[in-house]
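Predict the structure of DUF3098 domain-containing protein.
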Amino acid sequence: MAEKKTSPITKEVKSELVFTKKNYQLLLISIAIVAVGFILMMGTTGDIYDFRRTLLAPLVVLLGFAFGIYAILKK
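Done. Here is the predicted structure for DUF3098 domain-containing protein.
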């Protein structure tokens, strides 16, 4: 009869995370930037059409979202 040759099956399974530690740090920074933008937008006193509320705060929020996209796509 023919002999069966059994080769040891050693398949190394690496459990790599999708994001690295640096990606998570950048994501946390982007969340903080967005939060600062919303706090600036909220304001407590002053005119509703103030420079800070109508221009600065939305730009900060958009910058935070763009930074978040960069953090996700960074390899």
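The chain has a mean pLDDT of 89.
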